[in-house]
Amino acid sequence: MSAPLTPEQEEMKAAYLKARGYWKPWTEGLLRLSPNFLETYARYGGYPAANGPLSPVMVELIYVALDGSAAHIFESGLKLHMGIALTRGATPLQLIEALHLGTAQGLDGVAVGVDILAEELAAMGKPIEETPWDERQAALKAAYEAHFGDWPPFCGHLLQLDPGYFEMMLALLTCREAGEGLDEKSRCLISLALASCFTALAPEMLRLHLRRALNLGASREEVLQVLQLTAHLGVHACSIGVPALMEVLKK
């Protein structure tokens, strides 16, 4: 494993570095143990970022949100993509907002669970009572619709069951700082990536964010590229596994 690289391996390493901008222990291990897989992965993993309408900055912001997500938590990748994002022109506020959206991802379980709760209660003959909104509830519903332009079923259930929590949820989802942050379409595309990634796949929320992205002017090509980028996280099996194998082989 410590032998000098062959000319062919050096050429492959240089090509990878040029295309991806980094070289890690796991890529070194793959180069020595399975160069065909490394070369295949380089083409596969690099394709979505290089073939789509999203800007290089947006690609990195998506990777930041995915690596920082509580459903994944991959610190080395998070730091790597934060650094690349900054060199490509991202602002610190945009990085914070990507993490903000990752924080809001925790609401996916609430949204899905509240809908299921409503279904199960109805099946038991104990449906959630749909009383007319009071002034506070009506104002919260209007504020949500004004910002997002739709009214998903879970919102109606949650607002009926716990207006206080709904108010806190809305505040979290709409919180903004003055400065060079993300526009609404970019925020929606990042939320789409979080909901569609295999580490926390949430089909109902995927559909919600996909629909919102299209309504905000996202093209089908942009949406497709986001979906493709999420599959890239699968390589973290190698990011962790190959260095572990190299340690075992040394012993």
Give a description of the structure.
With 251 residues, this protein is mostly helical. It has 14 helices and no strands. It has helices spanning 7-20, 25-33, 35-50, 56-68, 75-87, 92-104, 107-123, 135-148, 153-161, 163-174, 184-196, 203-215, 220-230, 236-250. Helix 4 crosses helix 6 (92-104). The longest helix has 17 residues, at 107-123.
Short account of what is shown:
By secondary structure, this protein is mainly alpha-helical.
Q: How is the topology of this model organized?
A:
Elements: H1 7-20, H2 25-33, H3 35-50, H4 56-68, H5 75-87, H6 92-104, H7 107-123, H8 135-148, H9 153-161, H10 163-174, H11 184-196, H12 203-215, H13 220-230, H14 236-250
Helix pairs in contact: 1-3, 2-3, 2-14, 4-5, 4-6, 4-11, 6-11, 7-9, 8-10, 9-10, 11-12, 11-13
Key features of this structure:
251 residues, elongated, mainly alpha
Q: Please indicate the percent range of residues in DSSP E strands (runs of 2 or more).
A: under 5%
How far from one another are the termini? 12 Å
| Counted beta strands | 0
Instruction: State the helix count.
Output: 14
List low-pLDDT spans: none
- Compute the average pLDDT: 95
> What pattern of helices and strands is seen along the backbone?
HHHHHHHHHHHHHH
